[in-house]
Amino acid sequence: MTVQGNQQPGAKAPAGERIQRGGRRLLIGRVASAKMQKTVVVEVVRSVRHPVYGKFVRIATTYKAHDEKGEYKAGDLVEIREHKPISREKRWTVVRLIERPVET
To answer: How far, in Å, CA of 75 to CA of 77, rounded?
Structure first.
């Protein structure tokens, strides 16, 4: 991932996220659930170094993202962008589809 936009010199974005112009974070994750209307649950996995043991641990965080057309399905790899609050739990919107798994 690359850091873009107008950040302070030497500042880095946390692992697994990019900063875009305007300061809105971009995350890449997999759609875990698409059972709601106009909402998808996106799971973002990042690796963090354990403070004591030094081993890299995978941490998964789920975000509810707005999907206006209902076009994304479970298993899709998508990019989500931070947004003003849309509902009680939705603060993200789906920007684009990166990869769709092959159906057999």
So the answer is: 7
pLDDT under 70: residue ranges of the chain? 1-21
* Domains delineated in the chain: 22-99 (2.40.50.140)
DSSP 86: -
Q: Are strands 77-82 and 92-99 parallel, antiparallel or unpaired?
A: antiparallel
Structure tokens at 90: 């939705």
pTM for the predicted model, two decimal places: 0.78
- Residues paired with 42 in a beta bridge: 31, 63
- 79: enclosing H helix or E strand: strand 77-82
Round to whole Å and give the CA distance between 5 and 88. 29
